[in-house]
Amino acid sequence: KSIRKHLVEDYVISVASELLTPERIPLITASAMTEYHRLQGDNSSLNAAQSRLNEIESSIANILKSIESGISSKSFITRVNNLEVQKEQVQAEIMELERGMPDLKADDLTRFLVGFAKQADSSTFAINLIDIFVNSVFVAPGDDGSGHRVTVVFNLTDPHGKPLECSDLLIDGVPRKTPCIKRYRGVCLFI
């Protein structure tokens, strides 16, 4: 059974907007700061780039030794030129990674979220809200075969690193076992 796109879109915007309530902003700030600190401590990308740079420099040195010993061809020169281009790209990547992430404080993030929430009447608010907070939306048939279940996965994590979800919008039917917690445009929501 099909589902109207605008119902899902309106629901996702409504649920995502609820993240910006004064009670939830501190929770979002805590989640974002946890992820920020986790990413700051992760040097795997920098280590991988350093490793690629070492491999490229080693390849260039080996080709130059071959040329110095008298073994030479046009393909060697072409290969060295290609490696030099790769070396420049990897060095630029390393510089970007070493520069790191900007210094972010919880107060700055809270101030941004409060200011962002005040823009709810803006024409671009819904687009920005989705871009910032929503990772994915899944629509599936309801448990009892009537209606649809919608799960929204946010770009936020709980303290254990699990993505936060808002689940279980049932459209065109109310499940028999779960009570209706909230109504949205005549649709029963289970959050």
Quick structural overview:
The protein has 6 helices and 5 strands.
- The amount of beta strand, in percent, is 15-25%
Query: Terminal Cα separation, in Å?
Result: 23 Å
Q: Percent of residues in helical segments?
A: 40-55%
Provide the succession of SSEs.
HHHHHHEEEEE
Q: What is the average of the pLDDT values?
A: 76
Low-confidence stretches: 167-191
Number of helices: 6
CA radius of gyration is 26 Å
**Order of neighbouring strands in the sheet with most strands:** 1-2-3-5-4
Structural class: alpha+beta
Largest sheet: 5 strands, antiparallel
Shape: elongated
Q: Would you report the number of β strands?
A: 5
Write structural notes for this entry.
With 191 residues, the chain is α+β, with helices and mostly antiparallel strands. Helices cover 54% and strands 17% of the residues. The chain is built from six helices and five strands; from the N terminus they run ααααααβββββ. It has helices at residues 5-18, 25-41, 44-68, 74-99, 106-117, 125-133, and strands spanning 134-141, 148-157, 163-171, 182-184, 187-189. Strands 1-2-3-5-4 form a five-stranded antiparallel β-sheet. β2 (148-157) and β3 form a beta hairpin. α2 (25-41) packs across α5 and α3 runs antiparallel to α4 (74-99). The longest helix has 26 residues, at 74-99. The radius of gyration is 26 Å and the shape is elongated. The two termini are 23 Å apart. Residues 167-191 have low confidence and may be disordered.
